[in-house]
């Protein structure tokens, strides 16, 4: 059994890129487990109680329920538009959930884990969290979101969180449930500073779940986090025993503490098993800047998916950033991945296989002699595919995709190396057809493993090669490394090339362009540097990555688009001229801190170099 959950998203605003990222990872994991043959449940939904929601509804002259109905529908609509294959769409306003939370609260109360007292503390409405004075920034600001907190003093029920401190640490040590693993240290440090009992009710607003009637205290509302976390179990309804505990909770790093400290303590209190894994991912920025409405740089997932395709959007989010790290969204980087990886390596391989098989053998692709002639290539591809499985099971989505594309590269390189068109000319039909059989089997195996991330594209490949993506074929092609025969039919281009977006340029007359002031020129810093290392960037035909030495042995990494004109190894040891005070940029996923100068000559780029060897860091002026 596999039970996968996203957070139930708070309905204080419409869904954004971060929500889409979590949900796409969860969808990929759920599809992967179904492919492996596991009975799988995938839950997503919305968290709809709390003071922040009550205030938002009031500002819009709406009732909280009307407001939450509207925003929750926006989330559900987006997931349907992005073809997210969830099993449960849960809402905390559902009556079955309300009844379950009240039952859990009563159980904690009867166990002696809840007591009544007075609470005074700094409350952040935005984060729905209390903080001590020492935790605040600038005396009044929330350490998590930076907004002003409110000093509250009210009667409250408390949960004995401190009672479970040692048990939570023991769980971390014995089960190692936190992914990525480096996040565990943050949690351990937080707990070892001492857990304080948690205020779990409010009396200052009304929008939430009332205490169980057995406690007879109507003025209290249950704390939104205690309410929200139990949705993971309440939504299973009659299938609780079958699917609980969850295999993995997927969350953003900002809510890891609630899921990895509060949640296990609540579960321990009501004698329920703990989830197997909790995976916390990072945040997304846009071209280096935090997204905000005021800056006008918020990414709308539907707009990106409509422009570039759902599957290209999915691929970029999963491939661009290691799980747990923050990511930077750039449309040009998305386009680069479409062109270099999805189009060149993936879609083009299908086109080549179909074209060659139809030309050389009427579309019939056979496994005959593949093992005799190309076993080394097949073994290498399988190595990568096996690694991809391990990476995905540990939520390393970027490495999962990277390894699959290495397997695809084996097939593409084999075509370039053995040149089937020449084999046909030399009357070596068996070798040519076996090569096509090798490539088709690598593509079929890769497509099965890629199908959780790119379900529609992989289905088109399976139809074009006339095989089925299924658990049975997963076992045959991946687990047992069997080889298939295929019958190739025509297929549409899966990922057409996309033009890089160019910033609009203002027209400047030539005479105006030439006239700059001496103080403008003095701002430019050009220095001499020695190339310590130079490498081609995988997936790019034109980019080289340089390690340059400046003065005082300072090392700079610079990316330059001159790979078509220079061999990387020939440039090591040469001196070049570098614009060193250029703002850092990310090019094709690699940091570039400067610009190597070159001149355009007869459709070529020629490096600008010193006439003789001079000191590194020498200033050109």
UniProtKB/TrEMBL annotation:
Gene3D superfamilies linked to this entry: 2.170.220.10, HUPs, Isoleucyl-tRNA Synthetase, Domain 1, Nucleic acid-binding proteins
Entry EC number(s): 6.1.1.10
One family name in Pfam for this protein: tRNA-synt_1e
Short motif ('KMSKS' region): ranges: 290-294
Keyword Plastid found: no
Domain TRNA-binding: 520-621
Key word Ligase present: yes
SUPFAM superfamilies from the UniProt entry: Anticodon-binding domain of a subclass of class I aminoacyl-tRNA synthetases, Nucleic acid-binding proteins, Nucleotidylyl transferase
Main subcellular location of this protein, as a coarse class: cytoplasm
Gene Ontology MF, one: ligase activity
The record's free-text note on cofactor binding: Binds 1 zinc ion per subunit.
Residue window of motif 'HIGH' region: 9-19
Cross-referenced InterPro entries: Anticodon_Met, Met-tRNA-synth_bsu_C, Met-tRNA_synth, Met-tRNA_synth_2, Methionyl/Leucyl_tRNA_Synth, MetRS_core, NA-bd_OB-fold, Rossmann-like_a/b/a_fold
Enzyme class per UniProt: ligase
Cofactor names: Zn(2+)
Residues that coordinate or bind Zn(2+): 124, 127, 142, 145
Function of the molecule: Is required not only for elongation of protein synthesis but also for the initiation of all mRNA translation through initiator tRNA(fMet) aminoacylation.
Subunit structure: Homodimer.
NCBIfam families (alphabetical): metG, metG_C_term, PRK12267.1
UniProt name for this protein: Methionine--tRNA ligase
Organism: Campylobacter taeniopygiae
Lineage per the UniProt record: Bacteria, Pseudomonadati, Campylobacterota, Epsilonproteobacteria, Campylobacterales
């Amino acid at each position: 059994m596999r039970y996968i959950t996203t957070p139930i998203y708070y309905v204080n605003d419409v869904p954004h890129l971060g929500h889409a990222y979590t949900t796409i990872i969860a969808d990929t994991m759920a599809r992967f487990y179904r492919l492996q043959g596991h009975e799988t449940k995938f839950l997503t939904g919305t968290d709809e109680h709390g003071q922040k929601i009550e205030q938002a509804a009031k500002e819009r002259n709406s009732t909280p329920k009307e407001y939450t109905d509207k925003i929750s529908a926006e989330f559900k609509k987006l997931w349907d538009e992005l073809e997210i294959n969830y099993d449960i769409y849960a809402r905390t306003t559902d009556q079955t959930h309300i009844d379950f939370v009240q039952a859990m609260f009563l159980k904690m109360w009867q166990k002696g884990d809840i007591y009544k007292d007075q609470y005074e503390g700094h409350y952040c409405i935005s984060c729905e969290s209390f903080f001590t004075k020492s935790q605040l920034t600038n005396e009044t600001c929330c350490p998590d979101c930076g907004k002003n907190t409110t000093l509250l003093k009210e009667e409250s029920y408390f949960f004995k969180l401190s009672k479970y401190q040692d048990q939570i640490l023991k769980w971390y040590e014995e089960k190692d449930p936190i992914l990525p693993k480096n996040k565990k240290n943050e949690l351990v440090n937080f707990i070892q500073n001492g857990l304080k009992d948690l205020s779990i009710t409010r009396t200052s607003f009304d929008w939430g779940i009332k205490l169980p009637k057995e406690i007879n205290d109507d003025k209290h509302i249950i704390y939104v986090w205690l309410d929200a976390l139990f949705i993971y179990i309440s939504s299973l309804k009659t299938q609780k025993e079958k699917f609980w505990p969850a295999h993995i909770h997927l969350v953003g790093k900002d809510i890891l503490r609630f899921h990895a400290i509060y949640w296990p303590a609540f579960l321990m209190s009501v004698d329920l098993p703990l989830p197997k894994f909790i995976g916390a991912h990072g945040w997304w920025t846009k071209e280096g800047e935090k997204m905000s409405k005021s800056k006008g740089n918020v990414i709308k997932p539907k707009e990106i998916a409509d422009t570039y395709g759902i599957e290209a959007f999915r691929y970029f989010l999963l491939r661009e950033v290691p799980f747990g790290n923050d990511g930077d969204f750039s449309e040009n980087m998305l386009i680069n991945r479409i062109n270099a990886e999805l189009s060149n390596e993936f879609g083009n391989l299908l086109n080549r296989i179909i074209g060659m098989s139809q030309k050389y053998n009427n579309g019939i692709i056979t496994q005959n002699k593949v093992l005799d002639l190309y076993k080394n290539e097949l073994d290498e591809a399988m190595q990568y595919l096996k690694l991809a499985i391990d990476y995905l099971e540990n939520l390393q989505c970027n490495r999962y995709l990277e390894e699959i594309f290495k397997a695809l590269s084996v097939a593409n390189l084999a075509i370039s190396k053995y040149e089937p068109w020449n084999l046909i000319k030399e009357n070596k039909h068996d070798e040519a057809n076996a090569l096509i059989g090798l490539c088709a089997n690598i593509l079929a195996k890769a497509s099965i493993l890629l199908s959780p991330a790119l379900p529609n594209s992989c289905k088109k490949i399976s139809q074009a090669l006339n095989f089925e993506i299924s658990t049975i074929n997963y076992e045959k092609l991946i687990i047992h490394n069997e080889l298939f025969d295929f019958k190739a039919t025509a297929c549409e281009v899966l990922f057409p090339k996309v033009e890089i977006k160019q910033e609009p340029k203002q027209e400047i007359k030539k005479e105006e362009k030439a006239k700059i002031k001496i103080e403008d020129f003095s701002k430019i810093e050009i220095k001499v540097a020695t190339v310590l290392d130079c490498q081609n960037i995988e997936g790019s035909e034109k980019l080289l990555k340089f390690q340059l030495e400046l003065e005082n042995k300072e090392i700079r990494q610079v990316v330059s688009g001159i790979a078509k004109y220079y061999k990387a190894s020939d440039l090591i040891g040469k001196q070049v001229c570098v614009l060193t005070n250029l703002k850092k940029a990310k090019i094709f996923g690699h940091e570039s801190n400067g610009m190597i100068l070159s001149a355009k000559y007869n459709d070529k780029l020629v490096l600008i170099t010193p006439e003789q060897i001079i000191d590194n860091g020498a200033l050109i002026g």
